[in-house]
Amino acid sequence: xxxxxxxxxxxxxxxxxxxxxxxxxxxxxxxxxxxxxxxxxxxxxxxxxxxxxxxxxxxxxxxxxxxxxxxxxxxxxxxxxxxxxxxxxxxxxxxxxxxxxxxxxxxxxxxxxxxxxxxxxxxxxxxxxxxxxxxxxxxxxxxxxxxxxx
Length: 150
Known about the structure:
There is one protein chain. By secondary structure, the chain is α+β, with helices and mostly antiparallel strands. It has one domain: P-loop containing nucleotide triphosphate hydrolases (Rossmann fold, 3-Layer(aba) Sandwich). Helix content is 13%, strand content 29%. It has three helices and six strands; from the N terminus they run ββααβαβββ. It has helices at residues 38-49, 53-56, 100-103, and strands spanning 2-9, 19-22, 77-85, 107-108, 117-127, 135-143. Strands 1, 2, 3, 4, 5 and 6 form a six-stranded antiparallel beta sheet that branches. A hairpin with a 7-residue loop joins β5 (117-127) and β6. The longest helix is centred in the first third of the chain and has 12 residues, at 38-49. The radius of gyration is 17 Å and the shape is globular. 15% of the residues are buried.
C-alpha cells in the first residue's frame, strides 16, 4: 500500500480551499519555509493513520482560523483525504499483499483496466458547547469514486 496523495481543507494552516499534495513514486520530501505547512501535513496523516487514539483524535487547535476571524466559528468543518494505491497488485508474484483484504470493499477504479485505489476522508466538525475546547465530531468516510464527486 502506498499513499498517492493527501488533500486537506480547514486543517491548521490550510484554509477553506482544498490543498492537494501528490506523493511521488520513489522519493517524497517536504521542503518549505517555516509556517508553510510541512508539519501540518504530517499531523494530518497522523489523524488518519496514527498508532494511538491521541494521534488520531482531532482537537480544536486542528481547525483553521482565517486571518479575518477572531475565533473559531461554531460548526467549522475540516477535511483530510488520502488516496491509497496498491502497487503490489501490479506485481504478478508479490507476496506482500497483506493490506489488500482490509481495504477490498472500499476499492474503486477510474475506468476499465485501471488500477484499484482507495479514497478515504476524515471529516471533523467543531461544535461550541460552552467549554473551552468545545466538542469535535469525527467521521471517516470511504469514498468509492475516484473523481471529484463524493
